[in-house]
Amino acid sequence: MRISLISAALVAALVGFGSTVALVLSAAAALGATPAQTASWLLAVSLAKALGSAALSYGTRMPVVLAWSTPGAALIAATSGTTMAQAVAAFALAGLLVILTGAIKPLGHLVAMIPDGVAAAMLAGVLLPFCLRGALTVEAAPVLILPMVAVFLAVRLVNPALAVLAALGLGLALAFATGAASLPALALPLPAFTFIAPEFDLAVLLGLGVPIYLVTMASQNLPGFAVLRAAGYEPPVRPALLVTGALSTLTAFVGAHMVNMAAITAAICLGDDVHPDRAQRWKVGLVYGGFWALLGLMAPLIITLLAALPPQVMVALVGLALLSPLMGALSGAFATPDQRFAATMTLVVTASGVSAFGIGAAFWGLLAGIAVQALERFKR
Prior knowledge:
mainly alpha
């Protein structure tokens, strides 16, 4: 076991956790999750990533690493009026749809028929409000937020993957140093799983479950497979979908949202500096899984520490973390000229937050974009 394998896995795990944990906590808060349910969520999703990464890497002899669904968490955080029990049913549905996509080829083809611009615009519409709210925090707490933004921009020039983690570290230091936050009593209790009985609500299943599945497939799994292919590996598409879908379905009942293929953090684990022998590089997945298991066990401590921060710091962190995904989504939304109007319609409807029949904006944005694109194709 080379030191380079351990260091790459540690950096990838810390970047994946530190850059978007604030978003996952925002998603839990939007659903009214209790502290025990939130700790169960973080524990379950972390262990799912640990087990999935280790199993897929060992079974395929490729460096396959998993991540939690960042756009899925953003979608959840944007919801209102949805309970944890209803969300659990939606999470389980999304996991089952991923399993079906891996098992039934026609379903995968059906998802692929959604125009790329429309799918990207739906994601952009979900992410945009978070970035705007992040910008507004400068008014309320300039002493805390402006230095965080400055560090984020400076570190991004050198290492974009560490930029949000650096901003988080500075935000913690400034909040406690200036007295904006008081250090809570820290303890390390072992987290426990909290079972949540699902409540099946058709509006939530359509407005939350289906969009989570779609954005996870389009924005996480497909780029994750592309990163593996770019590194010279043939992606294990079917096994990866079956494993991530099964893990997501099982952990849904203890509050966790989806796990999927990693893209940005995967790139950290795929370079020649990780291991000069490509045939041995798969071992990074085992180490990565071990670090994620440790992070999951530390969930109660992390939640206590982050909960002590001023709310503006957490909102700003979410906004900074989502800038890069927003840039990618906007680029994809308007890349194809004949899809731009449909993408614009999708973006506007999704970002508006409009809700009808209890179904959220992401579903209606996707539907509006597909309808506009179909009309334009019919005209042509």
